[in-house]
């Protein structure tokens, strides 16, 4: 079956502009105040262009997540030291990032977007959980002999993401040694 998209062919420049505008407005205003009209104005495209490609703001946000436009580079764990040290440093930095008021609001908005749209939830899980760079970093540690091969990498990644999410949602500051305690509690039994 030959399925063809109705309407104009997607312009890559307009597509990128829409994703960047969505990410910028999402960071500035949050999900609840994000509108297709605002995205169109920021991206310098018509609303009809956005609706032709995405049926709702949740789908635009989902594509931003999928394309890596929405979540910043801080989600990449380092790879230079032993895995325990890398995870501690990464969690410290990420915790400081996500508990900053501007970024905390972004993550609370992501939760709202995920509740509004199951695709956003699935993509958020992929970015922070089962397909995440965290799982890839942990797999590299397994391959390097730093982590036991029976370590439940997905669950370890989800535990770290859950800790960060709980801090953001509860607005609770992290204690100075929280990253060390979390890494030791979750990953410690699997370190070689």
SS class: mainly alpha
The fraction of residues in strands falls at under 5%
Largest sheet: none
Helix content: 55-70%
User: Could you tell me the number of beta strands?
Assistant: 0
Number of helices: 10
Oligomer: single chain
- Global outline: elongated
Unreliable stretches, pLDDT < 50, 5 or more residues? 1-7
Blueprint (SSEs and pairs):
Layout: H1 12-29, H2 36-43, H3 47-53, H4 57-67, H5 83-99, H6 101-116, H7 118-128, H8 133-143, H9 153-170, H10 178-186
Helix pairs in contact: 1-2, 1-4, 1-6, 2-3, 4-7, 5-9, 5-10, 6-7, 8-9
Characterization of this structure:
- The N terminus is likely disordered.
- The protein has ten helices and no strands.
- The protein is elongated and about 55 Å long.
- Helix content is 66%, strand content 0%.
- It is mostly helical.
Kindly summarize this structure in a few lines:
The protein has helices at residues 12-29, 36-43, 47-53, 57-67, 83-99, 101-116, 118-128, 133-143, 153-170, 178-186. It is mainly alpha-helical and 192 residues long. Helix 1 (12-29) crosses helix 2, helix 2 crosses helix 3 and helix 4 runs parallel beside helix 7 (118-128).
List keywords for this structure.
disordered N terminus, 192 residues, single chain, elongated
